[in-house]
Design brief:
Strand order of the largest sheet: 3-2-1-7-22
Number of strands: 22
Radius of gyration: 23 Å
Number of helices: 12
Strand content: 15-25%
Largest sheet: 5 strands, parallel
């Protein structure tokens, strides 16, 4: 009898997890709290609780060539970088091609996921869901958590003294949809990530003035690289990855700085990262440098205080008559439907083996999918995660001992902090190609594994 797998969420991770379950002969059931697929990439004018939210102009930061699933290329007439509506169209074609919709229960919210009474021997889960006001319960052999990590906004208002006195409008970037209604405003955008630079550049075309406040600066890259090729086709090569791994770190730092400054000198724009040698994810934005040259966007240091109408910055400057503040301060993540002991979130970080498996479970039958921010496309990343997870569920691939997995987590965290620092927005960052290689190696081990082998 095929093993039953609960897939929580019908976004990117959920869809590819469904397909990988079917490829392995598993019996999946996907629970999606909304009425459609797409997750983060399905734009809606209204912000909905418990669901990721994007602005209308969002375009992918990775090219279609590097972002498609392994056995399903994107249509040739699609552009290299996709508007969110085009990407959603790809997911619809993908779901139809592999007949995935019949496995999804829409408008069904997962309330709880608990260990079955005999979990230590069976590895089964009790899943409770609510649909049309009715609660239902079922037992599954495995669970794939595909609920995403761009749902719960991180809004650190305590870090902005005087916010309670501010008379203008302020909101998290999750609330932003389009620039209409911001004509003639003086706007402060807090943050320097992808959302912050996108929103600041877009608002500057309607507002009278936009300020972008950054604590540490950031590298800014264009989607367009050498000879007009997409940046990720040039950056993610076996040769360049090999160099980053074998060369001394001081040389790698120098190479990274030269590469990041190839488009424009960040020092001239006040954007040089405070610790420029930390290999953090850069912001990808094709418009920001020109908007800075036009003066319609101005870079400011960290906000130290807010008054009724003004913002005071770390360098002592003050900007008066601020009408709107947009906090592009990232997201935190949680799993309210999981028992507290299953996946602990501390300081916006989780202890998961290869970002997927809780190491302390008696049976490896729960996996968190897509809980990572690679400098590269999430789509092939989560596909490899799903291919590995489904093989683990079947017993074709065996996880190492709890001690070995915990040691791997500690080493990975130490390396991450060494390379990327402790910034809240970088907690899930990892080397893209190295991580894909790790997953591919785990999948390859299948031919040396047997479902008869006991777990160490």
């Amino acid at each position: 009898m095929a093993k039953k797998v609960a897939v929580i969420g019908a976004g990117v991770s959920g869809l590819i997890s469904l397909k990988c379950c079917l490829d392995e002969g598993l019996e999946p059931t996907c629970f999606e709290r909304t009425d459609d697929i797409g997750g983060l990439w399905r734009f809606k004018e209204a912000v909905e609780d418990g669901r990721a939210s994007i602005y209308h102009s969002v375009i992918t930061n990775t090219s279609k060539e590097m972002s498609c699933f392994s056995d399903f290329p994107m249509p040739e007439d699609f552009p290299n970088f996709l508007h969110n509506s085009k990407l959603l169209e790809y997911f619809r074609i993908f779901a139809k091609k592999f007949d995935l919709l019949k496995y999804i229960q829409f408008q069904t919210t997962v309330i709880s996921v608990k260990k079955h009474a005999d979990f230590a021997s069976s590895g089964q889960w009790e899943v409770s869901v609510q649909s049309n006001g009715k609660e239902q319960h079922a037992v599954f052999d495995a669970v794939m958590v595909c609920s995403g990590h761009h749902i719960q906004p991180h809004l650190p208002l305590k870090s902005f003294p005087g916010i309670e006195k501010f008379k203008g409008q302020y909101f998290h970037s999750r609330q932003y949809k389009h620039p209409d209604g911001f004509e003639g405003k003086r706007i402060l955008v807090v943050g320097i990530g992808n959302s912050a630079t996108d929103i600041a550049s877009e608002l500057s075309k309607k507002a009278s003035q936009v300020f972008i406040s950054t604590r540490h600066g950031a590298w800014v890259m264009s989607r367009i690289s050498e000879d007009g090729y997409p940046w990720d086709m040039v950056f993610h090569t076996r040769f360049s990855s090999m160099l980053r791994n074998v060369l001394p770190r001081t040389v790698v730092k120098w190479m990274m700085e030269k590469q990041m400054n190839r488009w424009f000198n960040h020092e001239n724009y006040g954007l040089v990262p405070q610790n420029k040698y930390l290999m953090k994810e850069p912001a990808l934005n094709d418009d920001l440098p020109s908007r800075l040259l036009y003066g319609v966007v101005k870079v400011k240091t960290r906000v130290t205080e807010l008054t009724e109408t003004a913002a005071v910055f770390e360098d002592g400057t003050v900007e008066e008559d601020i009408d709107v503040i947009v906090f592009a301060t990232g997201y935190t993540f949680s799993f309210p439907f999981l028992e507290d002991s299953l996946v602990k979130v501390e300081n916006n970080s989780v202890s998961l083996y290869k970002f997927m498996f809780p190491p302390h479970l008696e049976k490896p039958t729960l996996a968190c999918m897509g809980l990572i921010q690679p400098l590269g496309s999430i789509f092939p990343t989560v596909e490899l995660q799903a291919r590995w997870a489904t093989r683990v569920f079947k017993g074709l691939c065996i996880l190492p001992s709890e001690t070995t997995m915990k040691m791997d987590i500690v080493k990975r965290n130490e390396k991450r902090i060494y390379l990327f620092g402790k910034s809240q927005s970088q907690t899930l960052q990892t080397n893209y190609i190295d991580y894909l290689d790790e997953l591919a190696l785990e999948i390859e081990k299948q031919r040396h594994c047997s479902s008869e082998l006991p777990r160490p």
